[in-house]
Amino acid sequence: MSHLSITTAAAEQIRRVLDERGHGLGLRVTVKPSGCSGYSYVLDFADEAANDDVAFEEHGVKVYVAPEALEMLDGSEVDYVSEGLNRYFRFRNPNVKDECGCGESFSV
């Protein structure tokens, strides 16, 4: 069975954005071929669940993962971090074998 964890900081940010939008079920995550290492994360807000999405719930929020991304994201942690002026969702993914220097793509 696949597992994905959501930190408190990520949950708070997901909830904040959903509240600002006024609608939505949670965060949707998939991956796409991209960059110099192979894949990049694609984040969007889920306004409805696709039939084949797998939902993970923690701290009162849901993250929906597309089935084609499930194996690559299994065991990952979704976090929300602030580094200087930058704020973003970060994935701690144990499946990543290599990342590009700019941090935009990864390989599994």
Question: What do these coordinates show?
Answer:
There is one protein chain. By secondary structure, this protein is an alpha/beta fold. It has one domain: HesB-like domain (Hypothetical Protein Aq_1857, Chain: A, Sandwich). The chain has helices at residues 8-21, 67-73, and strands spanning 4-6, 26-34, 38-46, 54-58, 61-65, 76-83, 86-92, 98-99, 106-107. The protein has a four-stranded mixed β-sheet. The chain has a three-stranded mixed β-sheet with strand order 1-6-7. The model has no long low-confidence stretch (mean pLDDT 87).
Give descriptors for this structure.
4-stranded mixed β-sheet, 108 residues, 2 helices, alpha/beta, Hypothetical Protein Aq_1857, Chain: A
Q: What would CATH call the class? A: Mainly Beta
Looking at the overall shape, the CATH architecture is Sandwich
Largest sheet: 4 strands, mixed
Q: Helix segment count?
A: 2
CATH topology: Hypothetical Protein Aq_1857, Chain: A
Number of domains: 1
Q: Give the overall shape, derived from the CA principal axes.
A: globular
Structural class: alpha/beta
Low-confidence stretches: none
Q: Roughly how much helix do the residues carry, as a percent range?
A: 10-25%
N-C termini distance: 19 Å
Strand-residue fraction? over 45%
Organism: Halomonas stenophila
Family: Belongs to the HesB/IscA family.
Domain Core: 3-104
GO molecular function, one term: 2 iron, 2 sulfur cluster binding
